[in-house]
Design goal:
Radius of gyration: 25 Å
Distance between the termini: 44 Å
Largest sheet: 3 strands, antiparallel
Low-confidence stretches: 329-351, 353-370, 380-391, 397-430
Structural class: mainly alpha
Number of domains: 3
Length: about 425
């Protein structure tokens, strides 16, 4: 769920205008185009101009950032950066009445009376109930409760979507739930001890947010009804971690809840998951990788697989599929335009590798199991880019790939029963 869906209506337009300005290298937009794109009257344009400048003044700490309209019919931004747009996005989220209700619904509903919560926030009782109805409609439209990847337990789904929303809105800008920082520290140290080295700053950010949402949901009486992993299949060190985690947390979480945190560490590569435990703990992973590798090795149009380090590639794919079936954003959220942009990059990398020539030694220097390429391939193949949905689309894709690969041209076809796509070799001329 995109956090901007929780903005007040006026802030949604403000944020969209800022993003539109950022898309232009000269940071300008004409008032005519803004009025047409967002259905605004001259009066509304003036109000948004004032609002954006007020917000920029709020988030600016160094060189001033502002809009000017000195050129007739043109808005020009000065000093506007991506970070400032992120700051304004968070500012809009925090002043949203819908967000006030959102946090009550998911973190405080079962432990704080509505009257007490309303008194703590700048929202009237009638508006609170109105926003509650609007929130339920929004969550249904956004498929907030829909199953994600391998997560089918309702509570796991909710926690994952909460994590995605807060991580997107806050990371690099501010710290959410700062009042929990002290209680999170012992758990972070416990995790660092289990991993065997201090946590990196990016790991601290990610893990802190995960733990905070985990704690808040438990405090709100929302607990898991199914295990996130099979603890008996894991090494003894994992059992020790569960016990240590329960010892430093008040109240102590159940083994199931502690296992949920352990699952996050293992699937997000904070700590290694032994290969022997992978099949029993996350049984969906290896079949996905095996199917993918079967498709890869069966085709020779894009790359000579005999020159790849298949063991390393398999290990990388196992890690990616592990994320895909656990704490990973739904594949269909990767929209077609984004995946289309990724595709030429994959092809160019594969082509560069293939240009080493058939006599090139089979070393990782020439053909490493590039995790980035593996990640892009997995995403591409799992979002089901249906090259075969129309003759026109097949023709466009075929011509595009011919330009990229020369005589090693390919014609994109999609097997009707597969969730992935792989090109078939075409031996004709360029």
């Amino acid at each position: 769920m995109n956090f901007t869906a929780l903005f007040n209506q006026s802030d949604q337009t403000t944020y969209a205008i800022l993003q539109a300005l950022m898309q232009r290298t000269d940071l300008t937009r004409t008032t005519t185009s803004l009025a047409a794109d967002y259905d605004l009257t001259p009066y509304q344009l003036n109000k948004y101009f004032e609002t954006i400048n007020a917000d920029l003044q709020t988030v600016t700490t160094g060189t001033p950032a502002y809009l000017d309209a000195s050129q007739r019919g043109v808005w020009r931004a000065h000093g506007l950066t991506t970070y400032m747009v992120q700051r304004i996005g968070l500012l809009a989220l925090q002043r949203s009445n819908l967000f006030i209700v959102f946090e009550y619904e998911f973190f405080y509903k079962n432990r704080l009376a509505k009257r007490d919560y309303i008194n703590q926030h700048a929202i009237s009782t009638p508006n609170f109930y109105l926003m509650t109805n609007s929130l339920h409609t929004l969550l249904a439209n956004e498929h907030f409760y829909a199953a994600t990847g391998g997560a089918t337990n309702p509570e796991s789904i909710i926690r994952l979507h909460l994590f995605e929303l807060y991580y997107t809105a806050y990371t690099g800008v501010a710290t959410p739930f700062a009042e929990l920082n002290a209680s999170v520290e012992p758990l972070l140290q416990c995790c660092a001890d289990f991993i065997g080295h201090p946590l990196r700053p990016t790991q601290v950010t990610k893990l802190s947010l995960f733990i905070k949402i985990w704690q808040l949901r438990i405090q709100n009486g929302e607990t898991l009804t199914a295990d996130a992993l099979t603890l008996s299949a894991l090494p003894a060190e994992s059992q020790t971690f569960i016990a240590q985690l329960q010892a430093v947390t008040t109240p102590a979480p159940s083994a199931r809840e502690a296992g949920y945190l352990l699952a996050f560490l293992l699937t997000q590569q904070f700590a290694p998951l032994p290969d022997a435990a992978l099949a029993t703990t996350f049984p969906a992973v290896k079949p996905l990788t095996a199917n993918f590798m079967g498709l890869l090795t069966a085709q020779s149009a894009l790359i000579d697989c005999s020159r790849l380090d298949l063991d390393r590639l398999t290990a990388s794919l196992n890690q990616l599929h592990l994320q895909l079936v656990t704490f990973f954003r739904r594949a269909h959220h990767l929209h077609r335009p984004h995946a289309d942009a990724v595709f030429p990059g994959i092809i160019s990398r594969l082509r560069r590798r293939d240009q080493c020539g058939p006599s090139a030694p089979r070393t990782s220097q020439h053909h490493p199991a590039d995790a980035k390429v593996a990640r892009q391939l997995v995403l591409l193949l799992h979002v089901r880019l249906d090259f075969g949905d129309s003759a026109a689309r097949r023709q466009r894709r075929g011509l595009h790939l011919r330009r990229l690969l020369g005589r090693r041209a390919v014609l994109g076809l999609c097997h009707p029963d597969a969730r992935c796509v792989f090109p078939r070799a075409h031996r004709g001329g360029g």
